[in-house]
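Appendix B: complex inputs.
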Amino acid sequence: MDYQFRDIEKKWQQFWAEKKTFKVAADASKPKYYVLDMFPYPSGAGLHVGHPLGYIASDIFSRYKRLKGYNVLHPMGYDSFGLPAEQYAIQTGQHPAITTENNIATYRRQLDQIGFSFDWSREVRTSDPQYYKWTQWIFMQLFNAWYNLETDKAESIDTLSSHFSQHGSTSVKAVCDEDVLTFTAAQWNAMDEADKERELLKYRLTFLKESTVNWCAALGTVLANDEVKDGVSERGGYPVEQKKMMQWSMRITAYADRLLQGLDSIDWPEPLKEMQRNWIGKSTGASVKFNVEGSDKQIEVFTTRVDTIFGVSFLVIAPEHELVAELTTAGQKQDIEDYITVTKKKSELDRMADTKTVSGAFTGSYALNPLNGAKIPVWIADYVLAGYGTGAVMAVPSGDQRDWLFAKHFDLPIIRILDAQQNIEEAADSTKEGVYVNSDIINGLTYKEAIATLIQRLEELGMGKAKIQYRMRDAIFGRQRYWGEPVPVYFENGLPRLISEDELPLLLPEVDKYLPTEDGDPPLGRAENWKYKDTYSYELSTMPGWAGSSWYWYRYMASQEERAENAFAPKEAIAYWKDVDLYIGGSEHATGHLLYSRFWNKFLKDLGYVTEEEPFKKLINQGMIQGRSNFVYRVINEDGVGTQLFVSHGLKDQYKTSPIHVDVNIVDNEVLDLEKFRKFRPEFEHAEFILENDRYICGVEVEKMSKSKFNVVNPDDIIERYGADTLRLYEMFLGPLEQSKPWNTNGIEGVFKFLRKFWKLFHNDQLEFTVSEEAPTRAELKSLHKIIRKVEEDIERFSFNTSVSSFMICVNELNELKCNKRAILESLLVTLAPYAPHITEELWALLGNEAGTLSFAAYPTFNPDFLVEDEFAYPISINGKMKMNLNIPLTLEVPDVEKFVLANDAVQKLLDGKSPKKMIVVKGRIVNIVL
RNA sequence: GCUCGGGUGGUGGAACUGGUAGACACGCAGGACUUAAAAUCCUGUUCGCCUUACAGCGAGUGCGGGUUCGAUUCCCGCCCCGAGUACCA
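Resulting structure:
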């Protein structure tokens, strides 16, 4: 029979599903391996050809690991809470649960067609109450915890309140709000419950905090910063105002240092780790207080260069700084107000366009250097950000370029502080070399000595201390949306209380419309009679998109049967599967999902629920698949109106044309199908063409894949035409997994042909299945063992494209050798099985093996003996230029190779009578003759 | 601006620790089979020069230098493309 991919693929997909081939269970007799894909949000558009790229790679890896004897956990699920379903609900009134359900069905159908070896019995959906029950449960654990800096981990809030009742607030080292109270044990015990609760909230790992949000009344929602452009919403262009509201927050900053340290222990792409490092933004320095002349106020600054403190010639505070009004003298009032007005306008425009301009205003006040009492003017300027550090900096023009520019512009002094500083009249010099000058107590000291001396002095004076500053902020956790997890909290006298654990899950209530209420409450405010114990108001915001995805890999560890148990995953399962060995997904989640997941994981570990400090040991980013748009060129007539004439790409410059997107599915290798084009849109029905070489060649451009650009390629179409095995191989063949690349089907024929050739190795010319039991020849064994080794090496370094090429080479070689020997083909088949599971299952069965056992067959053992050569065609180069090849026995050692080469006539001819100055011989590699 | 990727034929890409640049595939050209087409198979295909041909010569991995017997690979400087980030004190 010929290669009937449609029948074969359907048959085996059904087989795997019915026999539950890929259902796994913890098995202590086998080493575990956990391969995870970032689960998709099931959008209405379905899968396009870019989605499965990572899934195919992880599936190949999973199947390979099974062949290598591992017990492989390879699950899939859906991140099914999210905005598009809600947006659709607002427009159509359809419940997002229904939309989501339908979309999931489409995704599942599409995924099944590709032949993945997922254990679907472990599927998760974040919007499933049985799943979000545990998302809510984790929220409750966070609420019931504080971060003890003494033990450097999260602990139950009970240990904190018992500490308070025994020792008061002194000696507590915690990550907490800034406005915590100081009290004795007696004072604590005398407080009423509400006050205690209020105080504890300042320590909890999830807590209420007043935050400023981008409120869009027209859309009835809060927008993320990147959804706001030029002060209006990106979608729709509605006005956006800053609104203060109480929001749930997560104290991720408590974990800042562990999140940073942990990066060194995991095998992730360096750019990704770098992004997380920058996001966390740790800087080590000192905070220093400056007294204000004629005032009891102090200005606190953060600096990473406290050693430059004697070079400070002015302070700069952010225009939004709380002391601005107080520090402004009557004479400067106008200047300051004008400046603030300008700044405000500027931030509404594009502030980033303006990083070079120096601007600022003098407040009229002076601060005093805490170490030498020097009088330094206080300025405001928008280059100081209110949100970072203390919103105030000490300016050292000789060492910092921004300060230097500012000093030059406003004619402020530039003080030299290190003898190694050069040309400070032309630019700042931030060196730490040399010894200090003009620097009072640190004169003559080096950088290291100076820092220690100054910190000690500042601490003695009570005017400063060493400090570590992070850029990362606590994460806002509330969303004013409907389609998300309800927060398991109700309010009693304005104080948040958790519902009890046995009341979980707190179900998402029904609402009449998915819009905010008239008073601006989130959609949950519309739910009727939705009260805790019929009395107390529930929290009306829902959790953000990242909540459900911050722990889902643990839920997969629980089998279907175990999910009824009262835990997010059974202890034994967590002890067995531990962590994710390989995680594949896009780099766009670098500072969102991947950071929050690490945070929750560390928290769960602190409480003893999980065993590993880091959840994802190894991570690979798959590149994005971009769209590849095709264009036709419509000729424009003298009046500038489009005609019915279209000119081929190569001739378009001879005409006045306008490019029009054309559906990539009616273009093959840039050649337009003219008939299909006439049917593409009614207006093209009578289209005429100017051809080149009898064909219409389309133009090409790489753009995002989107419907409007007619460049979306659906995997279903590819599977229909070539089959899933071809799709799998082709997506890998396209190039390195981690590289972004445009999708084009130009090479897919080659992959399909390869599979047919592979099929034909097992068949005679009449396409009858025939394999020989003869012993293989040396050449055949060599070909086989080359591929055995190559595929092993390639898979381990995620170089899937090169193994596909190598398979092609191997099949070409065996074809040449007319090899149909079982001993060779059966082993080759196993190596190919992870890439093309359907065709190999079929042939495996035809070879007489028990159906379905291929998935757990043994990967063939590489034997290097078969690759040993006794001769090598040495490239002979002269002065590094390759001239010829010469077969030389590999038994010859270097001096003999030299003799052998020089004895050769052709070599002598190349030497042209000259005698070599030198000869380089690398055994088994190269001969280079230097003349 | 900073940080990180990346620039190799007409195209996607290969070349593992410096050692035959362009594997494999697409496309293209020519040929075989066929009444014809599709499918399949074979040959050629980096560029330039030279030659009837066999062959030969030269250049060549973004650009300019360097190290080396030898550089796509290492070093220095520059250009271009992509991603992230945005005055972080």
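The two ends of chain A are 62 Å apart (CA to CA).
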